[in-house]
Amino acid sequence: MKRVFAIFAIALSLGGCASMMSSAVTGLTDNLSAAILNQDDPELVRIGAPSYLLLLDSFVEGSPDNPDILAAAATLYATYGAIFAEDELRAAKLTSRARRYSLKAMCETYTPACAWPDASYDEFVATLDGVGARHADFLYTYGFASLAFLKAHSSDWSSLAELPRIEALFTHYLNISGDAVNGNVYTFMGILLTFRPPALGGEPERAREFFEKAIALTDGHDLNVKVEFARGYAKLLYDRELHDRLLNEVIAADPYQDGFILTNVMAQEEAATLLAEADDYF
Fold first, then answer.
1. In the predicted model, what is the mean pLDDT of residues 82-91?
2. CA separation, residue 62 to residues 56, 109, 114, 122, 254 (Å)
3. What's the pLDDT band for 17 if we cut at 50, 70, 90?
4. CB neighbours (10 Å) of residue 216?
């Protein structure tokens, strides 16, 4: 914490220079993200992360129109709200803030995005045509924050109407991101395409392609992909053999892969739970 507040003090001493402030926050959040992702104690992250949420809020207060700072705050709020907030009301509040921050970041870099909350599906998709490679990171952040928001509001069936918008957003992101693509999007697309059964518009075979691409992209190091593959695709199609194979591979794997340690530890816990419940489901 001393290092964090030292960085904070340095940032405050920059005299309001937006570019330097943004660089300081980006460095902080990059290092923080790496530290969190390589932590093998999820409870430590759950307890410690709120301090950083408040720290990022302070940066937003100082530079409310800086898209980089807004996106950094949105990412941490979305992650914490979706994964670590145990209370539904708290998760809803945290992910709502994440979405506001991410929308503001997008709006600051692409004016038509300011109208997204009130836009119809067709109007939303039409505006995506103007989103180019320079907006890709902010588009990803908005999509990620939106998924976290929808997860926290899953009991509100009206929120499910947004799923086609998020699918269109990530499809466009994949079209514009090139070599800088964030591989998590392949997992997100797999989840989105298996959220509904085929009779209601789900596309499990397309989803399987996305899950397999996500596994290949990380050389199998991201164990969470296999958990979502089993949960979304294998359970949807009642494929017990694939379900159990994927989850047993997760449990048998070495979780200590750089950049994936935290999610791998949590994936192994989830895999064990899903296997224990398999007899009741299948």
1. 89
2. 10, 18, 21, 36, 42
3. very low
4. 12
Domain ranges of the chain: 1-109+132-168, 183-282
Interval 126-139: pLDDT, tens: 999 999 999 999 99
User: Which residue type does 191 have?
Assistant: I
Q: Do domains 1-109+132-168 and 183-282 have the same CATH topology?
A: yes
pTM above the 0.70 mark? yes
Provide the CATH number for the domain formed by 1-109+132-168 in this structure.
Answer: 1.25.40
The yes or no reply on domain 183-282 and CATH 1.20.120.910 is: no
Tokens 């397999």, located at residue: 212
CB atoms within 10 A of CB 126: 12
Q: What is the pLDDT of residues 206-262, one digit of tens each?
A: 999 999 999 999 999 999 999 999 999 999 999 999 999 999 999 999 999 999 999
Q: Please, are residues 173 and 139 in contact by the beta-carbon 8 Å criterion?
A: yes
DSSP symbols for the chain? -HHHHHHHHHHHTTTT-HHHHHHHHHHHHHHHHHHHHT-S-HHHHHHHHHHHHHHHHHHHHH-TT-HHHHHHHHHHHHHHHHHT--SHHHHHHHHHHHHHHHHHHHHHH-GGGGGGGG--HHHHHHHHTT--GGGHHHHHHHHHHHHHHHHHTTT-GGGGGGHHHHHHHHHHHHHHHGGG--THHHHHHHHHHHSS-GGGT--HHHHHHHHHHHHHHTTT--HHHHHHIIIIIIHHTT-HHHHHHHHHHHHHS----TTTHHHHHHHHHHHHHHHHHHHHH-
